[in-house]
């Protein structure tokens, strides 16, 4: 028996925690939920004192002046002292922090003590380059150990890092450096992807040619011996500056609200938003969720978050959460099918991975590759499986459960955002009875509610997802744009944080996330704004006007479809369509390149001139067209549908 909710067939399959798992779980009853329900601020204060080491205790748990929160006011801490020094001081310095594996198969394991030394040295390098508390530094790196070292070195001295995903373009780097007035870029010559060295440094050079005037210094780690151009007086080799650096850099206490990082994410306009996270509240909720959602046992676990540090998942669940909890992590540089489609399972087996955290898109890809790949390996070490980034269809959930989890392992489907900093809605593996495809319930201390168009709470059925109380790891604003912060998150529904997602509540009180309700697409778990892609399309000299929609896609969740009108004098054709696609790749980065560009004579518009995206989405999804009577020219839609069918065939 199932009914349809949005994209889902609602499940009636239920998976209660297995008694063997619950017996040893970090949390196995509802006491924490009850405690948080009674007094959420007191609950978080307790967690902050238990999980975080403070140099000065806080005097006030929360100052909340909607929409601005300050958590743990008066408290002082150094986040790297929490991630590194305290483990070393407690005699755990020889414990491995990261088992790192490069795509070509080279490996490097670094202990907590070694990581601390590297971080102190690089913090001294930053100081020697004149960087001071409050400055911003951009980081554009592959998944190598120098990346967390660079981030932690910044954090140690109160410099905010702004990590730019390694797949982004020169323009994207320049825009982010300009917005944050970054004084330095830390990069590498390149990184290994799909069996070859992919250069990064030339992209940084291009960014610095077109913008990023605030950048004074570029530090370059040598990963691939690519021998990049080095600009005299601006570019320095990582190994040169580190050779002379002292390892003496005591952790300086920072205010709980010291800016820790800026991470840019797509919104509904063309300009990405610089999401700001601070220190004490962020660390508290990241450490809390990491420990309880993944049931971390630092003494014995080998934890692996297979995300990229360029996204928030990597910030919170590769760097700050796992290090703060003192667990051993695996970190992998490359792609999952190099040299073969069992690469991930080979890594799981060799290191004895106990927790694996990945995205539905990846799971669907593994499904396509076939269950014989994981079957080649012993995956019985895995205790908890996690997923993040987009709704997981029940079929993918079940495949993950059966073929990776051996039909035993609990799955935590974690809903959260760059803005929320850490997990918000997710099962706790020893407590929650899960349903395939549902993120289940808010964690203790987080309160979510669905509301209708008028902001009235809905008790069951569909609505907009809102968060009703501040939470410790919430964003503290958008860098340099207070108005946008208020407008985007706090104006749609009074007194509530509006997440931008739609969701449904079933009769058992389970939440089912349905995807974005704004002009943001979710492609393979990556947020991409329709407007950003539209701007890149019209930037091409042959394009007069463009409209972009996210169409349903079996593999990637959504796929980007761009409809373009050509400027006079340009002949429509495949070659031009491909050039236009590539242009978006160059402007924004490959992940934002449309799957299909449809060249159309006109776009469906309302009489007031607004593009009717709903119709374009219908066309892209191959659905029956909806009501077209508000169109300026109803004939346009039929023509678009014809062309989309042809372009779709060619994609084939
Ligand atoms: O639409 C939701 C989707 O990803 C968006 C947040 O994207 P980003 O800031 O890039 O962070 C991704 C990693 C935390 C959300 O607004 N999303 C994230 N997790 C889930 C999800 N949708 C459904 N289920 C999830 N578990």
**Uncertain residue ranges:** 1-8
Share of helix among residues?
A: 25-40%
Proportion of residues in extended strands = 15-25%
| Helix and strand composition category | alpha/beta
Output the number of helix runs.
Answer: 20
DSSP strand tally = 31
What oligomeric state best describes the polypeptide chains here? single chain
Gyration radius, to the nearest Å?
24 Å
Strand arrangement, largest sheet?
7-6-19-18-20-21-22
Give the overall silhouette. Answer: globular
Report on the structure:
It contains 20 helices and 31 strands. With 652 residues, it is α/β, with parallel strands linked by helices. The structure holds adenosine-5'-monophosphate-propyl ester (PRX).
List the helices and strands and how they pair.
Layout: E1 4-5, E2 8-9, H1 19-24, H2 31-38, H3 40-51, E3 60-65, E4 68-73, E5 76-77, H4 79-92, E6 96-101, E7 107-111, H5 112-128, E8 136-140, H6 146-156, E9 160-163, H7 170-180, E10 184-188, E11 190-193, E12 196-199, H8 201-210, E13 217-221, E14 235-237, H9 238-243, E15 254-255, E16 259-265, E17 273-278, H10 280-293, E18 302-305, H11 312-324, E19 328-332, H12 343-351, E20 355-358, H13 360-369, H14 372-375, E21 384-388, H15 394-404, E22 411-414, E23 448-451, E24 461-467, H16 482-490, E25 497-505, E26 511-516, E27 520-523, E28 526-529, H17 530-538, E29 543-553, E30 557-566, H18 574-588, E31 596-599, H19 613-621, H20 635-651
Parallel strand pairs: 6-19, 8-9, 8-10, 10-13, 13-14, 18-19, 18-20, 20-21, 21-22, 30-31
Antiparallel strand pairs: 1-2, 3-4, 5-15, 6-7, 11-12, 16-17, 23-24, 24-25, 25-26, 27-28, 29-30
Helix pairs in contact: 2-3, 3-10, 4-5, 4-11, 5-6, 7-8, 10-11, 13-15, 17-18, 19-20
